[in-house]
Design brief:
This protein has about 500 residues and is α+β, with helices and mostly antiparallel strands. The chain has 12 helices and 16 strands. The longest helix has about 40 residues.
Amino acid sequence: MQRTTITYVLCLIWLCQLCFGSIEKTSKTLKCRCDNCKNGTCETEGYCFTMVYRDGQHKKYGYRCLKNIFFNPKDKRTDYCKAEGVANYSTFATACCDDSDFCNSGLVLLLPIDDLQESKWGTVQIAVAIAVPCLVICLVVLILVKCWHNKRLHIPLPPVEDSMEAPNLPILNSRVSLKYMIEITTSGSGSGLPLLVQRSIARQIQLVDTIGQGRFGEVWKGRWRGENVAVKIFSSREERSWFREAEIYQTVMLRHENILGFIAADNKDNGTWTQLWLITDYHEHGSLFDYLGKTTLDVPSMIRMALSISTGLAHLHMDIMGTQGKPAIAHRDLKSKNILVKLNGTCAIGDLGLAVRHDVTTDTVDIPLNHRVGTKRYMAPEVLDESMNIEHFDSFKRADVYALGLIFWEIARRCNVGGIYDDYQLPFYDAVPPDPTIEEMRRVVCVEKQRPNIPNRWQSCDALHVMSKLMKECWYHNATARLTALRIKKTLSNYRALEEIKM
């Protein structure tokens, strides 16, 4: 009986094992993503497991299967399936799923610290979303206030010559001076204003009065926003001269205190005629020719005037090397009518329509195609007899120096020393008629080799003696023997320095 009972119990246990074993065998098998398994896949009758942890600044994930041995029989979940915290100084989080095959591939987990960071970022984004529109609104308000303020300060332009060509709409604040505008827009290049600004200024100029007349056209005094400007008006037949002069004036690094300040080039066309405008600084004393005709000079004024002219010519002749350098330029029409006298008694060289530039890379001269040949009275001997080598740039500079010597003679005659001075006269006034021909000048200068007369009394005055010595070295018949503009500048500068020491 006892043995039968034991046998019954054993059979019962065997039947239970057999029953449960068959259940286990028929339970569902789940495929999961596994990063440490062959083919990246594992199979389990439990759960698919996912873990995320921080490795430095990066988050990394781990995937595998969670076996039955980890199951809690009561809730069929384990502490492995939902956990987070800190381990080995790194945050981590875990999760499980059994919804479908590879369900752990799509689980997205947040580390404990990520929640805090996302919260912080959310606050920052809200702050930015509020701050940016506020800043934009403030900026718009400031612009509107500025526009209203400028409108209150607006001073109407004076009536202009042609309302269609010179609109009354200002492009700049009326308090901005022309000089300041040129300084802030040249950036050291000396090339004047940008073309767009040039055109805008030119169309707002009111012509006031004519102040000069020449073969090219007229020179007018003009007004722009309360400032005086000089407007040189070329006829349409002189377009080549107008274009050439504007081109030379806009040479890089040309701007200099002893070169006439260029402002703008423009044209005006009303349908029946065209005017070509060249706008420059205005100097109320006018040309050196006009100034000497009505004014005498003391010794310091004479030296200051001669030094400023030679300084301007030396700057023209100078070749400034570099990426923003200036080519050497020869004037070719230097005379007292093409030099302007400034309020401080110094001079500025103008009228660059016949100027030529030296291309140092090819050693060539860009001679303009222009029918004008300069002023015959101031032509050097080699120009008059056509023996000058026009392929050699220094020839043009030496011809300028010859003309400079004649200008010095005009200035020195008006120097008042002890109440004695000479009337103003043009060079060779006593040898040729007022409008001499090339043949007449060639006869006097090349054949007879005459030069303007130097009075004996000049030798008794140190300053006039220095000037007379310079003149003679400027108008040598042999061009290669003449001084350079730079040497003349240094000689006058040294003389003035010595005189200042004596005083």
